[in-house]
Amino acid sequence: MSNPITSIKLVLLGEAAVGKSSIVLRFVSNDFSENKEPTIGAAFLTQRVNINDHTVKFEIWDTAGQERFASLAPMYYRNAQAALVVYDITKPQSFIKARHWVKELHEQANKNIIIALVGNKVDILEDNEDERKVSREEAEKLAEEEDLLFFETSAKTGTNISEVFLGIGEKIPLKGPEDEHTNGGLNVTEDQRVNLANTANASENASACSC
Amino acid sequence: MNVKDQYLDTASTRSFRSGVRPSKSQSGFNIKTRGQPSLSINLDNTIVQTIIPPVNNTLNGDNEDNVSLNNFPRLRSMQSISSIVSRRPTRPNTVADQLSVNTSFDPLIEQSFSYSNNIEDPSTRQAQDTAFNEEARKDLIDRLAQSIYSYPASLTGNSYGFKPVVSNEIPDVFINDNQTSPDFKSHSKNFFILTSAGKPIFSMFGEDKQIVPYMGIINTVVSYFQINETTNIRTIKLNKTRQTFAFTNKAPIILMAYSRRGETTNELMTQLDLLYSYLISSINERQLKRLFHNRSNFDLRNYLEVTDFDNLRQICSLLSNKLYPDFGLNALQCFVMRKTERARIHDTIHNLLINESKDIPRGTLLYGLILSHKRKMFKLCAVIRPKGHSLHTIDLQLLFSLITHQFENRDGDQELWLPICFPKFNSNGFLYSYIKYLSRSHANNSSQMEDTVLVLISAQKDAFYKLKTFGDKLWNKLQHDKLDEYFVKDRFKFRISDIQAPLVHHFMYKIKKYVQYVMPEIEIHNDDATKLTQYECKLKKYYGHLYNSVVDDTGLPINKTILNYFHWEEEEEGEEGEEREEGEDAITETQRDFKREKINMMGLIWITPQFELYLICNNGVNNKEVVLRSAKRIIGWCKKYESRLFIQEGATF
């Protein structure tokens, strides 16, 4: 018998060119390309991961960071159980934008949504530590205040990428064998997702920082 | 329609040799173009009409030549026919007799079809035009040998054996203007987009600091005409330097095209329209107006993104440097498959749409496409559309350019959800496209990838999961029934050599009611990208001249039915071409070609209410009867395979 499968709907948010699509590409295909084309609209991808005895299927919405698509964002995070808010550690502006996204998610998204704050592009620091423009402390502080997971990653080298998704997978209550039924295929309906979210235990929200 | 050998053209032997002296800056050699938009014939009652179109100053890319065209006497109908005859003293004097003369060419053609080199039939030779001397005949036979390979089986898909590739060494009679000098002014073509306040948005070439002053000038020129003439300026032409500036004022956006390539104002205006349409596809007109409302100083560049600039650049390059018939003909190309195969695919789609109506309620899906994507060009495999509705080709081209861009260096497993405004559908609203790569395969014998893409379009912005469910089911079904094999590989691509149309180098055939066209596969040995670009540029210019020979100032064909030949010819006394400017290697290279082969190119354009045929012959062909016969064979071939070459109905719902 196959493992019970839990679907996690996850959305990536953040300013343009911080590396959202690269994080996804690293996670889904373990690949990286230097000059990625910016995303228009949004891209939908799936990836299955085994966590303990469970299979978690991530349904990922990789959204465009550009301002003119911002009005579409609610559509993607409305039913999401998890969100990655990504910023570029070398761009202070992107961190400000990240704060806005966190605020918006708390106000408008699902109450139980798990949010991970992700500072990307740490590989740049290997050559020159001065490139860092957003301090780790500042980000950790935000994460603590807003009850977020926090990671610093590099999609280029793969640093911490799978940890982000595993961290999220661990935070979301997985389906027990008794809940197991026919949602293994692609056709997971909206209803099932909503039910799943409702069964999530709100008290699970510990202020955890994996680092 | 009864197509008889009654297509005549007035200037068959009279050449315009008077005073054609292109300036040296134009080219290192002398080229004479004889576009003869002389005569058009009403096919139905064979009334000869004498509409001679107003000759545009940039018509043939040579102003002086146009002068001679303009001076050409306007012939009345019967005069024009007799004038042909009188210029051929060996021929009898009536139209009927002339037709009989035409038939005398038949033996030559028939024999060449039978792969025979022995055409020494004295009786027919006597009847030949005296100008048709021995040497020309030999030359003709050689050329025939190149293009008469015919594989009737090629369309049935089982002949992947040896197939000679027809030489694509048609000469380039045009200036090689693909300069890559860092100075943006050296480019022979450029596009500018700016706001009505004079702020730059985009330019094809040139850095910001270089172009900003020009933006000011463009803005001033446009404003001047608005204020003083309360009208919009369309074009500025400098005949001496062959420069054309075309303007489009779409307040709050101004667009300008600059060209030194002898393009007509009208061509440039339609190109600008495509660029503007692209802008509107990412920001619809309502948003645009809102952005500039009370903020006429708004910098639109802050709102557009890298993607937009990349796409604009991509479109500019398609317009400037590629053969881009999708745009030029305003039609789409279709993926060739058997009639029954396409019918099965469309039936499957149709049935699924009906059976799965609870997953995808009526009204969710607006339009659907299965596309084949290769070398940045798209072909239609299948169309799902509501009865009586279709999308404008411009809208689809915009969609294609977005898809190309989105899937470049991307993971094929993802599905996209794109908001896009279709300006010709509704310029004030967005539609949403679900896009998924279905499969990917290597094209035959090359490193080129062929991709199959599914596009489902909806007006509802949250319809993603519905469309995704439908798309997944559709793809599973197609795979299950093994129908996907029909379009994962281009089995039926054809070459010009597959059609028994001797002497034809390349053609494009469009059926108007389907807004689709067909042309032979463009192939370059070893897939050499630079050579391919050069070759496409060459074709593009030939076709451009052909088309411009039969359109009026507004860019519309001068008549419903037109048949016209177009001639490009190298002048005899080309000595001046020897003086070449230093550093222009490209021209030197072309000149070397000219020493090998004298340019004598002929093209044919045939427009009727049903179809359009554009045809370019091999170099050295000057026998119009043979060319016309080949043209008819092409039309016959396209008609015969119409249901393979074109999507006739699609899956309508």
TrEMBL record, chain A:
The keyword Iron does not apply. InterPro entries: P-loop_NTPase, Small_GTP-bd, Small_GTPase. Coiled coil: none annotated. GO terms for molecular function: GTP binding; GTPase activity. It comes from the Eukaryota. The keyword Nucleotide-binding applies. Keywords: Hydrolase, Nucleotide-binding. It holds the Pfam family Ras. This is Similar to Saccharomyces cerevisiae YOR089C VPS21 Rab family GTPase required for endocytic transport and for sorting of vacuolar hydrolases. It comes from Maudiozyma barnettii.
UniProtKB/TrEMBL annotation, chain B:
Residues 1-33 are annotated as: Disordered. Residues 189-309 form the FUZ/MON1/HPS1 first Longin domain. Required for multiple vacuole delivery pathways including the cytoplasm to vacuole transport (Cvt), autophagy, pexophagy and endocytosis. The keyword Protein transport applies. It comes from Maudiozyma barnettii. Belongs to the MON1/SAND family. Keywords: Autophagy, Endosome, Membrane, Protein transport, Transport, Vacuole. Residues 23-33 have a biased composition (Polar residues). GO terms for cellular component: fungal-type vacuole membrane; Mon1-Ccz1 complex; multivesicular body membrane. Residues 504-641 form the FUZ/MON1/HPS1 third Longin domain. The keyword DNA-binding does not apply. This is Vacuolar fusion protein MON1. Pfam families: Fuz_longin_1, Fuz_longin_2, Fuz_longin_3. It is a peripheral membrane protein.
